[in-house]
Amino acid sequence: MSSKKILLVDDDRDFISAIATMLAVKGYNVKVANSGIEGYEMAQTFLPDLFILDVNMETDRAGFELNKSLRTNGHFKTTPIIMLTGVETWVASNQIIEMYNEMAGMEGFENKKVIKIQNPDGTVAVDYKNDTGQNYTLLLDGFIAKPVDSDSLINEINRFLKD
């Protein structure tokens, strides 16, 4: 049995309960939080080995903002974070990102979608508008779209938590 700790942060209580149960059966020590604020507070005492975060919670970018807050906390700077979300994303090449950045500066350009950039090392980055409306690029360890099958999620977790 694993003694690794996972903190799940998602406001969908039914979804998070199902994921927590599945992970507990696999031997993980799991705690859940239902908002970015609650997740950050719980992280301080639980000290997880891995985070699984939703994006849309108390705001439509709360998970991204929680990710940024965790990365600026010295203790969690290198703790793996998997975003598990239903947020619609576009996968983009460097050429598309350059074009997007040029268009973003044009008057009247508005994009509410999140752009996902797949890096050669398996990490991903997302380009999104933060809560103040500024464009922001955030490096993530993993990004999985909902709905997710249990095998895919376990494989992604095992990529980071090898016993």
Question: What report would you give on this structure?
Answer:
- The chain is an alpha/beta fold.
- The chain has one domain: 3-Layer(aba) Sandwich (Rossmann fold), CATH 3.40.50.
- 35% of the residues lie in helices and 26% in strands.
- It is built from five helices and nine strands; from the N terminus they run βαβαβαββαββββα.
- The chain has helices at residues 13-25, 36-46, 62-72, 94-104, 150-160, and strands at 5-9, 29-33, 50-53, 81-85, 89-91, 114-118, 124-129, 135-140, 142-145.
- A five-stranded parallel beta sheet has the order 2-1-3-4-9, sandwiched between helices.
- β1, α1 (13-25) and β2 (29-33) form a beta-alpha-beta unit.
- α2 packs parallel to α3.
- It is globular and about 50 Å long.
- The mean pLDDT is 81.
What does the secondary structure layout of this molecule look like, with pairings?
Layout: E1 5-9, H1 13-25, E2 29-33, H2 36-46, E3 50-53, H3 62-72, E4 81-85, E5 89-91, H4 94-104, E6 114-118, E7 124-129, E8 135-140, E9 142-145, H5 150-160
Task: Compose a concise summary of this entry.
With 163 residues, the chain is α/β, with parallel strands linked by helices. The protein has helices at residues 13-25, 36-46, 62-72, 94-104, 150-160, and strands at residues 5-9, 29-33, 50-53, 81-85, 89-91, 114-118, 124-129, 135-140, 142-145. It has a single domain, classed as 3-Layer(aba) Sandwich (Rossmann fold).
What descriptive keywords fit this protein?
five-stranded parallel beta sheet, globular, 163 residues, Rossmann fold, four-stranded mixed beta sheet, 26% strand
